[in-house]
Amino acid sequence: MKTKLSSIILIVGLAAACALPPKPAVPSVSGDYNLYLTQGSDFLKEKQYDRAVEALNKAVALKPEAARATNLLGIAYFLQENFKKAEKIFLQVISLDKAFAPAYINLGNTCFMIGELAKAESYLKKALSISPNSVSALYSLGTLLLSRGQYEEGTAYLAQGVALDPEYLERQRDFTARIAVAGLNSPETFFAWAKVYAGQGRAAKAAEYLDKARNAGFKDWKRLETEKEFEKVLEDPEIKKFRRQE
Q: Which terminus of the chain faces fewer neighbouring Cβ atoms within 10 Å, N or C?
């Protein structure tokens, strides 16, 4: 499946990027594991992905059994858009620690990017079997299912994610442009997101996505009265604007 670098969701578990001064050049591999790990993490935050790969490769060379460093290396390759290499690295993480949920999430997102959606779904569901309240897995799996036209199941996962962390997408803006699958800008997908926010009683966000649905060609406004998620916001003035289009 064709992918493009613009849309809704990616969850790799990194902290928000900070405007930090440039770090010194990465020293030789004979250095300290913790130093390389810290440098690699800092380079990721600064979006210096090539330098992150260099530092984290040195960390992993010194301690190949370290799941955390290996996972960060996979993230660095992912952010370089070297998805096949990222997939290989995340599989190594799982071989080191089969209960490490972030690696399954990252594998799911990587397979999502390269269009291997069945594998992506399997990895994300495995992550949730290990960590049922993983917000990142819930958002990623919900988005994946929307992309496959499984709107009811997708909105259910997204609703769980929004309930646990309503502002997750806002905090992940640096990464949201890196996951996209054809169909995520369809009228039905936008309407599904509106349902998610309506079900949380967030009328303004629901209206935002209803507007996107309308601009994408959505016309079945009677569903605002038949879809149960809209019951909480049906009388809100912002939602009434769309009801008048019936």
A: C
Q: Does 85 reside within a domain?
A: no
Hey, CA dihedral for 165, 166, 167, 173, is it positive or negative?
Answer: positive
Provide the pLDDT confidence category of residue 29 given band limits of 50, 70 and 90: very low
Domain of residue 243 covers 185-246
Got the DSSP string for 52-71? HHHHHHHHHHH-TT-HHHHH
pLDDT digits (tens, 9 = 90+) for 30-50: 569 999 999 999 999 999 999
Question: Is the CB of residue 230 less than 8 Å from the CB of residue 198?
Answer: yes
Cβ neighbours around 77 below 10 Å, total = 23
Tally the domains of the chain: 1
Q: How many whole angstroms separate alpha carbon 96 and alpha carbon 133?
A: 23
Establish if 27 belongs to a structural domain.
Answer: no
Q: Determine the pLDDT at residue 15.
A: 27
Q: Give the CA radius of gyration of the chain.
A: 20
Whole-model pTM: value is 0.82
- Residue 241: how many CB atoms within 10 A of its CB? 13
**48 three-state secondary structure:** coil
Question: What does the block give as tokens for 111?
Answer: 């397979």
d(CA 129, CA 176): 24
* Residue 173 binned pLDDT confidence (cut-offs 50, 70, 90): low
- Is 195 within 8 Å of 229 (Cβ atoms)? yes
